[in-house]
Design a protein that fits this description.
The chain has a seven-stranded parallel beta sheet, with helices on both faces. It is built from 13 helices and twelve strands. It starts with a strand and ends with a helix. The radius of gyration is 19 Å and the shape is globular. It has helices spanning 10-20, 77-82, 84-104, 139-152, 181-192, 210-222, 225-228, 244-254, 278-283, 293-307, 311-315, 321-330, 343-347, and strands at 2-5, 26-30, 48-51, 67-70, 109-115, 160-166, 168-170, 194-198, 204-209, 231-235, 241-243, 261-265. Helix 4 links the parallel strand 5 (109-115) and strand 6 (160-166). Helices cover 38% and strands 17% of the residues. It is of the alpha/beta class. It has one domain: 3-Layer(aba) Sandwich (Rossmann fold).
């Protein structure tokens, strides 16, 4: 049995379906911060759901679990900067604690959803490998980096942690996010015939489609232990590194009509890095990505049109993590520690 923390999130909903469709038994664990923010309802796979904050997990929650996929986190740089200490508590300390409990419970594989943002600002002369210098520049990235350190200390002959440093994810999910560069660019192009690039757009982003991300985790779940034990892997495709201005151009060229305006506005590009993803392809040859940027853009275009995405959605808090959390705090649904003031919101629906 596989426990997926954060299974009701953007990646988690796709991951849960991906694994259950391959006949794996899944139990989900999620705080349900984003209940009611789904873009697509559809039919849901059958699995057991634990409604709980990752900070409150007990060993009893891990009974019978053989592998953990740990996705739960405050998931953006902007959300992480709201309260850096809280970000560390959730993304760092709670992740290490979950791994420690998993080890005590006899879990064999622990797949930690980390991030290529750990590389921060890296030299542009070549894609960075897993052995490259970590240079986290945000609270989100620093917490992930610290979690990696603490989790790797737990490795032994019976406990096999893996650090999966995800590229920037894009693509459709029932738990849609529009605070991801490709997803929001396509939304802006579809709804407003324009998309925005902050700064000069020369900063690099490696990309991976959410379904290919699931394929990577699935491959690691089934890889020989000696090839993945206590290893870090960049998750993506080396050929899918783009400058942000290139992403904008490809969105403009790929969408029907081609009359999209690209707007450059003042702002910092922030982190910039290209990543080399050859290690995971070597260790897990079953990992065969099936998406590229142009294909993903068309998927989003069709989904937005079919699903009735509106300009109001683009301006609301529904698909933006930091906006949603601030809204829940303003409405006294969450306190400053991101604890529910009433379980009614968390449990209904």
């Amino acid at each position: 049995m596989i426990l997926i923390s954060g299974n009701m999130g953007y990646i988690g909903q796709v991951m849960t379906r991906f694994l259950t469709e391959r006949s794996l038994e899944v139990v989900g664990l999620d705080s349900r911060f984003y209940r009611g923010c789904e873009f697509q309802n559809g039919t849901r796979p059958r699995f057991r759901q634990i409604v709980k904050d990752v900070r409150d997990v007990t060993e009893a929650d891990l009974e019978g679990v053989t592998a953990v996929i740990h996705l739960a986190a405050l998931s953006t740089d902007f959300l992480g900067e709201m309260d850096p200490q809280l970000t560390y508590d959730i993304n760092g300390a709670a992740s290490a604690r979950l791994a420690e409990m998993a080890k005590k419970a006899g879990v064999e594989r622990f797949l930690f959803s980390s991030s290529c943002s750990l590389y921060g600002i890296s030299p542009e002369d070549r894609p960075i490998t897993e052995e490259g210098l970590l240079n986290p520049i945000t609270a989100y990235a620093r917490a992930k980096a610290q979690a990696e350190v603490e989790i790797r200390k737990l490795a032994d002959a019976h406990f096999h942690p893996v650090m999966l440093r995800n590229a920037t994810v894009y693509g459709m999910s029932p738990g849609l996010r529009l605070d991801l560069v490709v997803n929001v660019m396509v939304a802006g192009a579809v709804l407003e015939n324009k998309l925005t690039v902050f700064g000069d757009g020369h900063h690099w982003r490696p990309l991976v489609h959410v379904q290919d991300l699931c394929r990577a985790f699935y491959s690691v779940l089934h890889a020989p232990l000696e090839t993945i034990h206590n290893q870090a892997f960049n998750v993506g495709v080396t050929g899918e590194n783009y400058r942000v201005r290139e992403i904008a151009r490809i969105v403009k060229e790929t969408l029907p009509g081609g009359n999209v305006e690209i707007q450059f506005v003042p702002g910092e590009g922030g982190r910039t890095y290209r990543v080399d993803c050859s290690k995971i392809h070597s260790a897990c040859p079953d990992f065969q990505p099936q998406w590229d940027l142009r294909k993903g853009i068309l998927e989003l275009y069709e989904a937005y049109r079919k699903g009735g995405l509106t300009l109001r959605d683009l301006k609301s808090d529904k698909y933006f993590r930091v906006k949603r959390i601030r809204h829940l705090m303003d409405e006294n649904v969450l306190n400053k520690d991101l604890r529910f003031l009433s379980r009614q919101f968390q449990e209904v629906g």
